[in-house]
């Protein structure tokens, strides 16, 4: 979900790309983004089991989500800048290697604190891997295929959106939450082997990395700041509720592990449809219309979930299922259109910087939202999670609608 190269950028010196470029490296890089995306999304339905194992409350164990998203948001711009002079292929191998090792450490963690440290390492490695994978894939593809290369790398994350949540529920409930980290470690190992075997070292040259001054120059632009504010409130709302879907379903509908797994699979299916549909509608209707419609639907779904907490489980089932489907669809239909707006707001060379800032802003919002959700969950007022999430989306809608141009 992070792009740091643009279809308009020229192939950098030192990067091997034929006249038409090649898309094969992007396929190997997508293995890594799939592993990273799966790890990021899989943990939500497992929080109650982890809380039981550690003898902690769900809101306390949710620190694993807060810390991961905050560490990724803060570290990614710094590590990307620091690695700018390194061979990109070697940087990717280092990042996915650390990510894989951290998942192995998490699988065998003996306590909560060691698991927390493992999650921080995963976040730092993920924040280094994703922008470098996009940059190198785009450079190796050549100008004529750069857009397709970035779509392939991002596609790994898109598939993870659809599969990460249900995969975590199925594997974690069947074999324990430790097995989910082992599964992701295996994915990371496959990605490492694919990059090592499929990407020549001389192809890992030095695509340009934006300097800190260039990043600051982009963020100084009022239109960019407003768009980043929209992303921030969207992300806060999304993650106020997302990590706590399992305790919500258990409390409101009385669902057990099987029911929770089926419901999060429903969410994942509609999330995948949302990503694809959002991209298509963006081309046909324009980014502003798609963003506004997605935010309206998203706020409505969260408020429907909040209202369902006042109903009996039998009565609440269909409203909750409807809300979960609309939530999954609309939360990710928003994303392609929002990226399109950021790309269009300025000249082509600044697009990679704007998208990188958008990724950091998104994960910062995820961190804030998950912390707010944990606080509300601790009070026992489940309805407050949906209420606050909907209000956050309403704030994003106000910013988006008030500044649109069509």
Residue share in helix = over 70%
What would the principal axes of the Cα set say about the shape? globular
Structural class: mainly alpha
Total strands = 0
CA-based gyration radius: 20 Å
Fold and architecture overview:
- This protein is mainly alpha-helical and 406 residues long.
- It has helices spanning 24-42, 47-54, 58-61, 63-82, 88-107, 112-141, 146-175, 177-198, 212-219, 222-241, 245-253, 257-285, 287-308, 313-344, 351-379, 382-403.
- Helix 7 (146-175) runs antiparallel to helix 12 (257-285).
- The radius of gyration is 20 Å and the shape is globular.
- The two termini are 26 Å apart.
Please give a quick description of this structure.
Mean pLDDT is about 85; it is low at about 1-20.
Question: What topology emerges from the helices and strands here?
Answer:
Elements: H1 24-42, H2 47-54, H3 58-61, H4 63-82, H5 88-107, H6 112-141, H7 146-175, H8 177-198, H9 212-219, H10 222-241, H11 245-253, H12 257-285, H13 287-308, H14 313-344, H15 351-379, H16 382-403
Using brief descriptors, characterize the structure shown:
406 residues; mainly alpha; globular; disordered N terminus
């Amino acid at each position: 979900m992070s792009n740091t190269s643009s279809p308009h950028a020229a192939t950098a010196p030192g990067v091997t790309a034929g006249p038409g470029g090649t898309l094969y490296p992007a396929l190997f890089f997508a293995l890594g983004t799939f592993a990273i995306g799966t790890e990021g999304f899989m943990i939500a339905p497992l929080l109650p089991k982890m809380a039981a194992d550690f003898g902690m409350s769900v809101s306390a164990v949710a620190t694993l989500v807060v810390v991961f998203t905050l560490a990724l948001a803060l570290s990614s711009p710094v590590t990307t800048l620091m690695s700018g002079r390194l061979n990109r292929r070697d940087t990717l191998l280092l990042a996915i290697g650390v990510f894989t090792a951290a998942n192995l450490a998490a699988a065998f963690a003996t306590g909560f604190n060691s698991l927390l440290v493992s999650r921080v390492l995963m976040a730092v490695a993920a924040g280094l891997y994703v922008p470098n994978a996009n940059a190198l894939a785009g450079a190796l593809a050549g100008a004529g295929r750069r857009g397709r290369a970035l779509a392939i790398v991002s596609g790994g994350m898109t598939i993870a959106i659809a599969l990460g949540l249900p995969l975590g529920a199925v594997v974690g409930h069947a074999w324990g939450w430790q097995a989910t980290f082992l599964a992701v470690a295996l994915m990371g190992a496959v990605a490492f082997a694919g990059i090592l075997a499929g990407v020549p070292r001389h192809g890992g040259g030095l695509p340009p990395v934006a300097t800190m001054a260039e990043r600051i120059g982009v963020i100084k632009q009022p239109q960019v700041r407003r768009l980043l504010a929209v992303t921030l409130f969207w992300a806060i709302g999304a993650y106020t509720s997302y990590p706590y879907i399992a305790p919500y379903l258990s409390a409101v509908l009385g669902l057990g592990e099987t029911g929770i797994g089926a419901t999060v699979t429903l969410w994942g299916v509609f999330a995948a449809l949302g990503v694809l549909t959002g991209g298509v509608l963006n081309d046909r209707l324009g980014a502003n219309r798609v963003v506004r419609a997605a935010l309206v639907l998203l706020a409505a779904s969260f408020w429907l979930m909040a209202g369902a907490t006042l109903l009996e489980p039998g009565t609440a089932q269909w409203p909750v299922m409807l809300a979960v489907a609309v939530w999954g669809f609309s939360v990710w239909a928003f994303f392609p259109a929002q990226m399109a707006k950021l790309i269009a707001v300025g000249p082509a060379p600044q697009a990679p910087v704007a998208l990188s800032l958008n990724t950091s802003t998104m994960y910062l919002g995820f961190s804030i939202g998950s912390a707010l959700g944990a606080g509300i969950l601790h009070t026992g007022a489940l309805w407050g999670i949906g209420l606050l999430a909907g209000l956050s989306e309403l704030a994003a809608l106000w910013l988006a609608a008030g500044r649109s141009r069509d």
